Amino acid sequence: MSPNIPPTPADAAQRRAARPTIIYPAGIMGGPDMAVLEAARQSMAKVDEIIVPPRDGRAFRVAHGQFFRIVSIEGPQVGDLNLWNADDLSERFFSGKTRALHATHVGAGDRLWSTMPALRPMATISHDTLGWYGFDADGAGIHDVIGTRCDPYTNLLLNGTSYDFCCHSNLSRALAAELRAQPRAVEHHVHDVLNVFMCTGYTKDTHQYFMKASPVRPGDFIEFFAEMNLLGALSACPGGDCSTTHSSDVAKCYPLKVEIFEPDRSLLGNWPWPAPSAYHRRHGAGG
Ligand SMILES: [Zn+2]
């Protein structure tokens, strides 16, 4: 906060007393039919699984109509998730709009939205074993869309050291391996993440981003329904449970598991597969 705080106007209390308005009220869009998803997930069978080693990343593919889970194994571990439209990498997860449409932290029934101009659900959260957590006394919740990802650039800026196993680097290497390219050639595709299992909030006095030990335990999972063909990448964050530190080899880290499931597709019926936004994109310029 600047030490040069300007004088408080006489009507400050009146200005501050303006009533908050929820910008994007829940329910205005009409949510996904969770009963259909619940029936489908009861029928599903595992078709693949990928282990993400600690302080490393892996890419995976999920066909539209499949489900995938991110599973805690061995110990408490945070994961950083990126998602792309597998058929067009320019359409990718839009953390900021997901936060605006839902909340700072997401859970079952919420959707992961894609970037403009498509702006449509990429995946719907179909189950979350940490859904009981809610918001704690510190104001912290689980699975945030307020952070970005740990990265070597910020680490160099703040600490003056180079570290190559931040989530940004892990995701870049994972995507590069999948696309058979060099990490530096694909890292621009890496974007703000869903912080899976991470327990975060803003401090009440200074509104700074904080983290605390993740409550995730082995066996916990968050599960998604793929609304399109997805290319995903997951990093097992070098912060481990993100209780104290990240961007180093100090924290205890564990692997994560990605599981992919095929449901009985007849149970999905006429699922309304999200189409790209119908906005005409002329932006008022005619044509
Ligand atoms: Zn990280």
Secondary structure tally: strands: 13
How large is the share of residues in beta strands?
25-35%
Bound molecules: zinc ion
Binned, the helix content reads 10-25%
Q: Measured on Cα atoms, how large is the radius of gyration?
A: 20 Å
Distance between the termini: 47 Å
Given helix and strand content, the structural type is alpha+beta
Structural features, described:
The strands form 2 sheets. Strands 2, 4, 5, 8, 9, 10 and 12 form a 7-stranded antiparallel sheet that branches. The chain has helices at 12-16, 34-42, 95-101, 152-159, 167-179, 183-186; strands spanning 45-52, 57-62, 67-72, 79-85, 88-92, 111-113, 121-128, 141-144, 194-202, 209-212, 221-226, 230-236, 256-262. β6 and β7 (121-128) form a beta hairpin. The chain starts with 11 loop residues before the first helix and ends in a 25-residue tail after the last strand. It is α+β, with helices and mostly antiparallel strands and 287 residues long. The chain has 6 helices and 13 strands. The protein is globular. The model has no long low-confidence stretch (mean pLDDT 96). The structure holds zinc ion.
